[in-house]
Here is the input.
Amino acid sequence: MKLVYSFFHLNLAFSSIEEEQRAEVMAKCYWPLLHLIEDLKILVGIEATVYTLENIALIDHRWIDKIKELIGQGLVEFVGSGYAQIIGPLVPAYVNKANLYLGNQGYERILGIRPQIALVNEQAYSAGLVEIYKEAGYETIIMEWNNAAHLHPNWQEELQHFPQYILGSDGSHLPIIWNNSVAFQKFQRYAHGDMELEEYQEYLDKYFAIGEGMFSLYGNDVEIFDFRPWRYHTEAILVGESEWQRINRLYRMLKNDKRVKLVKPSEVLGLMKEKPAGNILSLEVPAQPIPVKKQAKYNVTRWAVTGRDDLGINTRCWRIYEVLVNNNALEEEWQELCYLWSSDFRTHITEKRWQKYLTRLNNFENYLRKKYPGGKLKSSDIGEKINKSNLMDVKEQGRYIIVKTPQCDVSLDSQRGLVINHFKVGEGETNLFGTLAHGYFDDISVDMDWYSGHSIVECLGKPKITDLNPARDVEINYYPDGLMISGAVDTSEGRVYKSIKVFADSPELTIHYRYLWGALPPATIRCAHITLNPEAFSRQSLYYATHNGGTSKEVFPLNGMEVNLGTSVSFLVSSNGCLGMTEGWIEIGDDRQALQIRIDKTEAALVGLLKYQEVKDKYLLRLAFSAGEWDETRKNNQVDIESLEFTVRIKAVTK
Here is the structure.
């Protein structure tokens, strides 16, 4: 017999629903769901954040009383997700912990329970989140099957019909219950009248005929039944029969189908001892460290660097985080930060709610400035200038500026916007990163100049913009800890100011960027590219490591892989993923040495884009930082690049 489970995701913060529509959503969506469960006596999972439950209680507390009654009767299993719907792989581990902790407190206060099953918010998963869910007391998580299976073509098809274990970056593991995005989209099409019951039943029969195992009937939004958020122009028009009546008919059919048993989500864990259940799986791969639900356009960049101003509001949230984590902050202050980091403010948020969000964000920042006047928002102190140091030697050889210190040898190309031509450690002759000149690979697909320390900006309908023009007004200044070479690069959009600081007592440098541009139309803004020298790092042990929302770092081997997080999904979606870098660093190297590359998220909440491609006996490995991507959430919004300023720090380390 097939165990069939379903859960419904409730979200009153839904991006395209105005606050004054929430009572209507409750009447048309939330109450019919409870009536369906009560009338048919079916077992269903319901998931909501504490924020949603709090707002439901304000609108109609009877709904809270009714769901508590249904939970007590064993008809509803409540699934947790935290205080707010934040994207775990994009925020610091401490914020993820706070969100789940505050969520548990809220669930106990409102519902009198503490959920044992968690839904990964927006199904945006990273291996670093596993230990955080375990620490919060969750015993199982729900995550989408389809993208994880696509990333692992060697997985057997049967794995999706049984619960498994997922492996965390710290070596721990948790049971996982699969959600199926194709299945829940089929459910939606049936409910919306795009499929008749007989046609939908043919789809279900393929799974029911398999017999043993589980099937995820539905696991997504409830606000789309008998109500339209009008997030997209393609949403089905409400006509004719109530969609809840169609859903009622479906569940009645399933109740009478002797091949299936409708169960609560946790009941499928009873299959864990069956074959092929209980395998320990890694959902992520080097090419996609943060799997997300549904089609590729729904990748994690949509909450990082797109939207109305994701980069701006994420940066401000990082600054608030720095203030809170460095002070004895109150729980309600952490709760406000969780709210401000909610995913729905970063996609299809309405203009009215966007302006209200900005006001609330401004008010909280002003409150924190008064309460914590010493709170650091940005690091900008580089020290006082000194006279020339005997430890550092600078020479100009034609277009190149050569800097030598006891720790490193750096060459900058003044005719190419001060890009880094080479970076060598100590007395070594091997360049660790810099420029790979045209012809290096002897392969037409990658035969071009691959620079380090430059930006590439691509606007829709405009020529590519780079800062590879000659540097103007170049200055060399000495500081107690190193020297800085600064210059300005003119582009078609305005000037870019760049400063490269080489340290005297450490094999490292920093690249500081400041743009004096106006607003741009939707654009990809990819900065501070770093190109590794394939001759400096062994391909066999090559890896990258970073954090994506967890406490433990995530390590990804590269040999034999192909990675390109910056490749476009379609004309409307410019990237297929990114690296959260939630501790502010990424490490790239082999078993002998590595580059540690750091950014300050309080300057700009950049995300990482990695490219790795093997070319004959060589490879191309590059890292860039994205300050902007485009997708359907950007619409026609302008990007204010004039306020973009940040520093990238690169240090060589040996093992």
Observations:
- The longest helix spans residues 351-371.
- DSSP finds twelve helices and 32 strands in the chain.
